[in-house]
Amino acid sequence: MSYSPLLVRLIDGLRCMPGVGQKSAQRIAFHLLERDRDGASNLSSALADAVSSIGHCNRCRMFTERDLCAICSASGRDAALLCVVESPADVMAIEDATGYRGMYFVMMGHLSPLDGIGPEELGLVKLEEWLFGGDVAELIIATNPTVEGDATAHYLADLATRLKVKASRIAHGVPLGGELEFVDSGTLAHAFYGRRAID
User: Fold this and answer.
1) pTM value?
2) Across residues 126-144, what is the average pLDDT?
3) The pLDDT of residue 132 is above 80
4) Are residues 109 and 86 in contact, defined by beta-carbon separation less than 8 angstroms?
5) Which domain holds residue 162?
6) How far is the C-alpha of 60 from the C-alpha of 130, rounded, in Å?
7) Number of structural domains the chain divides into
8) Rounded to whole angstroms, what are the CA distances from 48 to 44, 76, 104?
9) Cα–Cα distances in angstroms (integers) from residue 112 to residues 44, 145, 189, in the given order
């Protein structure tokens, strides 16, 4: 069965989202058109506004409509602590789950030479300038525990060491409440070899 050109365009447009394939896009399109046209209009308007008005913070690269994001412009944050993350979602996860009150730097990815993503694409020149400024005492590296995340973490640690800034990395390993027999071998090995003394 052939669909109308506008419906095909809508389905194809929805497929740009991560995890949304042909069938999911079709289901979402049909739902919006059959049952929630007001929701579809609100979504369309919000998406158009976000695309035209949201940019990056001039300091940390987080999404914002202003020159500085809410975190960078907030008083009371600890400028001596700088946490480097891969994405804005990581900032939100840390803010929601911890009492961290330092600053952030959002790379919008990780080093991946095969994909043409190097230090320049991640804004690491701006990070180097920030560290060189002398306000940062500790660089907290919060990259994902992947091959690319580990490579990026090593690069960041070398950068911090060169600029005489203490570098630390968030711990990875057995999840809280997890049982060892059910933890995958890679995670367990990482936790085992990354063990630390009990205070």
Assistant:
1) 0.85
2) 95
3) yes
4) yes
5) 76-169
6) 9
7) 2
8) 6, 34, 27
9) 33, 14, 24
Same domain, 82 and 49: no
Q: Is the pLDDT of residue 174 over 70?
A: yes
The verdict on 33 and 114 lying in the same domain is no
Looking at the DSSP bridge assignments, the partners of residue 166 are 138
Q: What confidence tier does 179 reach under pLDDT thresholds 50, 70, 90?
A: confident
Query: How many Å apart are CA 141 and CA 151, to the nearest integer?
Result: 12
Q: Which residues pair with 81 in a beta bridge?
A: 138
- Pick from 194, 177, 139: which is nearest to 161 by CA? 139
Is residue 193 in a domain? Answer: no
Residue 80 sits in the same domain as residue 46:
no
CB atoms within 10 A of CB 2: 6
Confidence at residue 108, expressed as pLDDT on a 0 to 100 scale: 97
82 and 48 co-located in one domain? no
Instruction: Residue 25: give its domain's CATH number.
Output: 1.10.8.420
Contacts of residue 90, defined as CB under 8 A and 6 or more positions apart, other chains included, come to: 106, 142
Mean of all residue pLDDT scores within the chain: 92
Once rounded to an integer, what is the mean pLDDT over residues 156-164? 96
